[in-house]
């Protein structure tokens, strides 16, 4: 196998990563505050999923995803990579930098400004077996919602980096990247 054993160095442009992380936090804050302004985040910590309104769910999911897309895109554009792999890597590193920032903000009680999904990152009270089962269920639902928001952020940041590279967003593109134009399979119309 040709090239086996070779290492390939992908430099990390840390200034692009930090600016992308700040852009993701800023976009998340704007989307979260917009959700509060239109009344989409009428959620308390002790609410069950069946009582969550659709607009609340849409703002929370869109906020988690699109703020990460913006962060990954900003990092990819600032770094200037034309290939999708290093740009996607920078999007993932933006996500890795944003996670501790979100944990710090949740420790300060500031994740409410981003919507209800990140409140599960805050320290939850210890609930004993004899305690109210509704509180335990609400804490479980909050943790699950935070997990979904975090994983959507990872997907969004990688997609944002991919978008910033300018390469086509097709999974089959990579099998044909190195082929000359006349060697590529023709599409039948």
What does this structure look like?
Helix 1 (14-37) packs antiparallel against helix 2 and helix 3 runs antiparallel to helix 4 (133-165). The radius of gyration is 20 Å and the shape is elongated. The model has no long low-confidence stretch (mean pLDDT 77). It has helices spanning 14-37, 54-79, 84-107, 133-165. The longest helix has 33 residues, at 133-165. The chain is built from four helices and no strands. The chain has 189 residues and is mainly alpha-helical. It starts with 13 loop residues before the first helix and ends in a 24-residue tail after the last helix.
Q: Low-confidence segments, ≥5 residues, pLDDT <50?
A: none
Content-based structural category: mainly alpha
| Helix-strand string | HHHH
Number of helices: 4
Number of strands: 0
């Amino acid at each position: 196998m040709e090239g086996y054993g070779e290492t390939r160095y992908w430099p990390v442009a840390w200034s692009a990563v930090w600016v992308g992380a700040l852009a993701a936090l800023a976009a998340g804050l704007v989307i979260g505050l917009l959700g509060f302004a239109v009344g989409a985040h009428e959620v308390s910590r002790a609410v069950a999923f069946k009582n969550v309104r659709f607009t609340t769910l849409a703002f929370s999911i869109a906020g988690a995803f699109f703020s990460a897309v913006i962060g990954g895109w900003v990092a990819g554009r600032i770094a200037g990579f034309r290939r999708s792999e290093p740009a996607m890597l920078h999007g993932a590193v933006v996500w890795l930098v944003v996670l501790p920032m979100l944990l710090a903000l949740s420790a300060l009680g500031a994740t409410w400004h981003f919507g209800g999904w990140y409140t599960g990152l805050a320290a939850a009270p210890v609930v004993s077996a004899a305690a109210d089962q509704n509180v335990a269920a609400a804490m479980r639902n909050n943790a699950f919602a935070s997990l979904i928001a975090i994983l959507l952020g990872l997907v969004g940041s990688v997609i944002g980096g991919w978008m910033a590279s300018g390469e086509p967003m097709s999974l089959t593109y990579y099998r044909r990247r190195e082929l000359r134009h006349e060697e590529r399979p023709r599409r039948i119309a």
